[in-house]
Design brief:
heterodimer; A: 83 residues; mainly alpha; B: 175 residues; Peroxisomal Thiolase, Chain A, domain 1; 7 strands; 24% strand
């Protein structure tokens, strides 16, 4: 299962309906929640669905989700680790 | 102070604001040029983007002309808005995510399946703790009758109608 950061950013933009935003607006290591992209708990649900829909990964542990969804870098690392 | 926005132009206190884009792209263009510090904007539905941009341009103009400081908590100021079509544009987008065969209900879209989210967005951003409400009514005159009968003394009031991502109108005042 190969995933590029560009692909993942595009999937995040589509899933979260970030109309007008481009992959270039999301930095690889910037925090996705709180500051940075400003995502919230509803968006975390949406990211879980991205993982399930596109990569067949089900995240159920809250603490693990928090760590995995810290940034685009951590998300890609996690997906790659599940190959 | 008054702002009028449709899918092609923005008029602030009688002066047209220069824009290159149309429709929702125009709202994003205005966000990038005049706001830029509220990434939640990108997650909003078109109705919320419309109301948000209208409120931002009005409040920035007030700050510029009258020296009123932004984001100071206010018990007096509130937000009352209304329209005819509620949140129909986003409701339809959400409905697409719950069709048979591709059943992934979108939480990000679901949160905007209420028209009063726009008034909440504006009140939270500006720390307006006065009256807040959104009314689905036939026309702006009916809405303004409601405003006049309310206890609201100051804040953002107006019409924000959204029929499509590029088909909308706002007529909003800062009172």
């Amino acid at each position: 299962m190969n995933v590029t950061k560009e692909q993942l950013k595009q999937q995040i933009i589509e899933a979260l309906n970030l109309e007008g935003m481009t992959p270039d607006d999301i930095q690889d290591d910037a925090p996705l929640f709180g500051e940075g992209l400003g995502l919230d708990s509803i968006d975390a649900l949406e990211l879980m669905m991205v993982f399930d829909k596109h990569y067949g990964i089900k995240l159920t542990d809250r603490n693990e989700s928090k760590r995995v969804f810290a940034s685009v870098n951590t998300m890609v690392e996690y997906i790659e680790s599940k190959r | 102070m008054r702002i009028v926005i449709d899918g092609k132009k923005v008029v602030l206190d009688g002066c047209q604001v220069e824009t290159k884009e149309c429709g929702e792209k125009m709202l994003t263009e205005l966000y990038r040029r005049y706001v830029g510090d509220y990434p939640k904007f990108f997650k909003m539905d078109t109705l919320s983007k419309l109301g948000f941009i209208a409120s931002e341009l009005l409040l920035q103009r007030e700050a510029s002309l009258r020296g009123v400081e932004r984001f100071v908590p206010s018990e007096e100021r509130g937000v009352i808005m209304g329209n005819r079509s509620a949140s129909i544009v986003n409701d339809r987008e959400y409905e697409k995510t719950i069709q048979k065969g591709d059943y992934y209900p979108s939480p990000a879209l679901f949160v905007y399946t209420l028209p009063n989210i726009v008034t909440g967005e504006i009140a939270i951003r500006n720390k307006f703790y006065g009256e807040s409400g959104f009314y689905v009514v036939e026309d702006k005159e009916t809405l303004m009758e409601i405003v006049r009968s309310s206890s609201m003394k100051a804040g953002i009031v107006g019409w924000v109608e959204c029929r499509g991502r590029n088909d909308f109108e706002a007529d909003v005042e800062l009172i």
